[in-house]
Amino acid sequence: MQSLLPLYVFIPLIGFFLSLCFERTQEKAMSRIAITTVSLHLLLVVVGLVGWLSHGMTTQHFKYWQLFEHEGFKFALDFYLDKITIVFALVGSIITLLTLIFSKFYMHRDEGFKRFFCTLLLFYAGFNFAVFSGNFETLFIGWEMLGFTSFLLIGYYRNRYLPVKNAFKVLSLYRLGDVCLILTMWMAHHVFHTNITFIELSSNNWQEAFHIAEKPGSLLFMLSMVLVAVAVKSAQFPFSSWLPRAMEGPTTSSAIFYGALSSHLGIFMLLRTYPLWQAVPYFNYAIIVLGLITTVTAMLTVRVQSTIKTQIAYGTVTQLGIMLIEIGLGWHTLALVHFAGHAFLRAYQLLVSPSSLGYMIHNQFFEYQAKPINHMHVTSRLRNTFYMLSVKEWNLDALQQNYLWRPFKWLGKKFVWLESLASQVALTLFIVLGLMTELNYVSLPQAVRAYFPELYAALSLMCILAAFSSRGNPMRAWWKIIMSQFFIVLGVSLNVHVEAAHVWIYLTTTISAALVGMYCLHNTYHLDKDINLNQYHGYVQERPDLALIFLISCMALVGFPFTPAFIAIDLMFTQIHAHQYVLVSLTGFGFIFLELAAIRIYAKVFLGIHKKHTHPTAYRSS
Amino acid sequence: MSLFEPRPELGHGSNTLCIVGKRALTKYMMLDRRAFMNSYDYKTDLDGQLLTNIMKPLGPVCGGINLEYYFSRVDNDKLGAGTKLPHNVVGLFGVANSSDGDLRPGLPWQMVEVHDPIRLLIIVEHFPEVVLNAVQSTPEMYEWFINEWVHLVAVNPETHTLHYFKQGKFVPYETLATTLPSIGDFNQLMEDTPPMRTNQLPDATKENLAVYLN
Questions:
Q1: What is this model's ipTM?
Q2: Do residues A547 and A540 touch, judged by C-beta distance below 8 A?
Q3: Of A25, A79, A288, B62, which cross-links A5 as Cys (Cβ 3.0–4.6 Å)?
Q4: Which residues in chain B touch residue A244, judged by CB atoms under 8 angstroms apart?
Q5: Closest Cα in chain B, distance from residue A236 (Å)
Q6: Is pLDDT of A367 > 60?
Q7: Is A504 a residue whose pLDDT tops 50?
Q8: Cβ under 8 Å to B: A residues 358-377
């Protein structure tokens, strides 16, 4: 039974790699591979369910791969199966299977048929990584894969402007959630001094075992990070506005992602971390309040939305808020039942949403009655206020834009001078100085050296922000991203002693990815001698091969779970001490904007409307 | 019938031919569901009074649908609605892409690709003089024909000769080919046809139509 657990993750992964082997026109083979994979998976989940029931519903745990071990830091793939896992896996595989069968006909003759099925299989693998995860690291792998595949499927129509814009918007919020999860892992490592597994957490005496009562601040930090990650993933207030904007891909992918599975992962995360917060007073009140605010705002919004998909999206947000309230009140089984029913309902509603016209137009023709006009008085004025607020979706989108991202853009623009030759030389000198200090060629007074980690982390963040808000040459922005990696490595290695081998793992992956990326940008530049970041260029139309390679190198550069750099990032975070809040926030922000800066270059150069008129292009606003 | 499959057509398929005449005219003919059929017997209407009323909506309705297909194919991304798969129904009156896209005009790829656009051919079974009188009776109807937005052919009900409307008058029409090629074994032809190189939308709609040039 336990040895079965890894299969749940690896079957979808094998399916994904198999699906890559086919030509893009082989629709039958593609859909057959996908459907077989998910059917097989569903069968296994049912076997797992029977096994779990026959074992008396005991929690199953499988310690699978120890990928890495170093001074108490263990990176292991752990798998875990309990009630929550079973419910999520069963619902997930049934919905995915049904949607795949539907998509086989729905996507027929579409240009991106293969892209769709491959991405969906990768998503499915990520979903199972998250659901079957036995520790935070494995959960994080799944979490990252989900964010990445979301980006690909929202931006599925990559030759139009709006899908690309919205995909990037959603990706940036997801990245915020990802980094919150990294910070949770960082703090967990300092609290528990080991890589805590969910099975250890679910034992009753972990609080005594790890002396939790002595460090309430650390626990609070972890929980607030979890809460932000949950709020982002499940589109809670004030992040609700991304869910309707994510409905850009084909209807089937919207159904599976934003109606059914992806949006419920926040609920999963909250249930999974229940042992962490069960004894923390007030945390469940925080959840209830968050759920309540979300439910009320989303409920008011859903009633005035004019399009069917935004209605369904805000309807989903409302129900997610109610699920949060249920969890806060301690009704976990009810939340699970609610999740299962809700996921099926939303998947169905989204799949039939294109024909809502056919269903409802008769209603409008024959039974429509205009509402009587109310004269203005105090209550109607109040109602109109709420009406306008809801029509504008409580300004959440603008709020995020103005107060979350724009300050960083503004800050990044202040660092334009990094482009100049003098500052390049200065930065290089800083790298040399750091290296010398690290290798003890230069001995600086301790009082100065103590500030070095923060200094280098700040320099790294500076480079990244400059790249993030750059509107000029992408090759220069790319170069700044590479520089920032040197700074971050130096910052961490000046902080504590890091083994040279680990630095090499990280640097070799990063630098080779950077070189490949530079090669792609260089080749693209030579097509028309202009790839400035001021506009979208859409070169994927002309050079899909370069676009794919550049995307892979972006993912490798930012430490997507298929690279060793991924472990190195986790390792680097654990090297930061629990009291170094400045350093950790600088590094954390660095990791948010590192991915955003890289993917932004990808989006601007390769996605969007192709600038040449050799083929039909859609309007920017369509 | 499933309403949410992407290629339902819903009665919008007839868009190439419009036949005003007796049903005997098209007996045993395969029209591929693409013809508007107006039952009309010229003997009941020798002076063309009824014909005028029948032909009045042909331009705006049949020609309109026909041109909708044409423009949607010419530039599906701007004049048409693009692919149907991400469409979002807005307020029960239109479609847009996702939450903040504009309303889309025209027809989606999935409709256009199953019907190659051909200029509408209206065939009327009556004497050419009567048909000419009928189409010239109102200027807004005549616009459609004189500006060649649609083709018009009159079939002489007695001699069964064809008269093509060109530059304001009917001229006798002679077919370019005198013999029609025929297929012996239809099933064999279907089996021998090589499979399409690619079946994806942008490629599959690039093929040339069989056109006779003179």
A1: 0.85
A2: yes
A3: A79
A4: 99
A5: 18
A6: yes
A7: yes
A8: 358-361, 364
